[in-house]
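User: Just a sanity check before I run the rest of the batch. Below are the structure tokens for the first item. I only need the designed sequence back.
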């Protein structure tokens, strides 16, 4: 069942590329933008995160924390972040708990791969309530950055 605006966002605890555990509860008081992406180093995923990197000042200016979430290991994500100079945390959901809790799980992906994240975005307000949720029907299609910015802007 897809998450919808008005719902409480499921809490999570995931490790970032610095091997530090990040939880939604720890971010209370900040708006949070979760970017779900299937796999590091792939074209559309790279473009998705580069857009967030290039617009990070807009999001931080609206009291928002940007987080990327995929099933890649923290070691793969560390190289991905380093090579592309991402200026926000990438979180490893290797065990697929968060992508399932957020209904961002694809059981069958390309080339016989099973169980990756859908491409999507969730905007969560400072109190932990979902204000925007999107998943693309096709992982080759980009998220709606204008709608994400609009949702963040409404949060003040």
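Assistant: Here's the designed sequence for the first item:
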């Amino acid at each position: 069942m897809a998450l919808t605006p008005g719902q409480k966002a499921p809490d999570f605890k995931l490790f970032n590329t610095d091997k530090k555990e990040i939880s939604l509860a720890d971010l209370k008081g900040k708006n949070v933008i979760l970017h779900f992406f299937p796999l590091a180093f792939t074209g559309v995923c790279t473009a998705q995160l580069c857009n967030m990197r290039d617009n990070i000042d807009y999001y931080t200016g609206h009291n928002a924390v940007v987080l990327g979430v995929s099933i890649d290991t923290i070691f793969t994500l560390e190289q991905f972040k380093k090579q592309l100079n991402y200026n926000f945390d990438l979180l490893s959901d290797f065990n697929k708990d968060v992508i399932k809790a957020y209904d961002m799980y694809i059981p069958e992906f390309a080339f016989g791969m099973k169980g990756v994240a859908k491409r999507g975005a969730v905007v969560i307000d400072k109190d932990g309530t979902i204000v925007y949720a999107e998943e693309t029907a096709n992982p080759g299609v980009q998220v709606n950055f204008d709608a994400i910015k609009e949702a963040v802007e409404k949060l003040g």
